[in-house]
Amino acid sequence: MNNNYFILFCILAIISQVQSVDPSCKGIINTNPILHDEPTFVNSVPNGKRFVVGSGYDKINIVHLYGGTPYDMGLALGKLMSEDLQHLVPEYFAYLDNKIEDLIKTLPPLVAKWIAELGLLGALDLNYEITRFYTPPWYDEELRGLAAGSGISYENIRRLNLLPELIKAACSVIGAWGQSTLSKTTLLHLRSLDWDEKAPIAKYATVTVYHPNTSYEGYENHFHDYYKQKYSGSYTFANFGYLGLIGSIGAYNEVSVGLGQKVWITKEQDITSRFGNPWTYVLRDVVQ
Ligand SMILES: *[C@@H]1O[C@H](CO)[C@@H](O)[C@H](O)[C@H]1NC(C)=O
């Protein structure tokens, strides 16, 4: 399975290739070496195991979670990553607080108004209120487990998870195959967060490998309510993201479905509604 992760890291090399032939590109070529090391085991708790690969700024956590219930997976993630979350969450909100004036200028007027009136935390809470009716219950269950395991408040864990929904993100994706790749055979897939590399989340890169309990009755009983189709089981999948985020932005599952989020919103009107299941959760249920 590890090979699959490393294929994703390899794509950076392909991008350098593309940049070097396009003089209009102002980006800096990524010359970081690809990590080939075997992940090192760190520790385990009921329902979870933690590994790390790389070191310093390039350290990547690899956390395996085994359901149980969504609460059990959240609890295991929280326990395994508690110390890191205790550092990340305050750093993350302090960072956002510092950047908020710049951030507001890039946001749709409606969201800028919410933040001006309610503060960032209040806007994230409002976003929870307007989406929760549409959100499958297993996300709240996992967030509650994550809060209990890590010792971070449930409200702050929830806010961290609703930031992508509030700002709707942007990001980049690429799928390359055939003549566009050096190997000319494999399909390569990249999803880039395109955020400040000094943002605190960059220090907590985490691959979370979920092994959901496919017969968990919460999925069976409620899947149709949210997705209007019959629940037909779950797959093991890896979320490539940052610590604390339980929804998907980039992911890959055991039946070879790769997922990378990209949004193209130029006007608030391009968003048909802000009432709905947050996009990070919709994408996760696509791979899970
Ligand atoms: C999976 O979910 C079912 C139904 O909710 C439960 O009875 C079972 O104990 C769970 N399996 C594990 C390994 O926890």
Automatic annotation (TrEMBL):
Signal sequence annotation: 1-20
Protein keywords: Signal
Superkingdom, natural source: Eukaryota
InterPro entries listed in its UniProt record: DCD1A/B-like
Alphabetical list of PANTHER family matching this protein: PROTEIN DCD1B (PTHR35190)
Name of the protein: Uncharacterized protein
Provenance organism: Adineta steineri
